[in-house]
Design brief:
Number of strands: 2
Number of domains: 1
Largest sheet: 2 strands, antiparallel
Radius of gyration: 25 Å
Structural class: alpha+beta
Shape: elongated
Helix content: 25-40%
Oligomer: single chain
Strand order of the largest sheet: 1-2
């Protein structure tokens, strides 16, 4: 079994690499879901976060520990 990649657009499938074959080959096409982009480091501003948390007197670590203990 061979694995190929390509792009489907407007009813056409274009393979990334050509394949040589002597006879017709049966294929199955799977459409990959678009992967969410997610967050990148550039999406965060440490200075902005520090500014937002400057008046916070709680310990982030203690809050996480308490949240995990109460979830059990």
């Amino acid at each position: 079994m061979k694995s190929l990649t390509g792009t489907y657009y407007k009813g056409r499938l274009k393979l990334d690499k050509p394949i040589k074959t002597e006879r017709p080959i049966k294929v199955t096409v799977f459409f990959e879901e678009d992967k969410p982009q997610g967050l990148k480091l550039a999406d965060f501003s440490f200075l902005e976060t520090q500014e937002l948390l400057k008046d916070c007197n709680a310990s982030f670590s203690d809050e996480i520990i308490e949240e995990r203990r109460s979830a059990v």
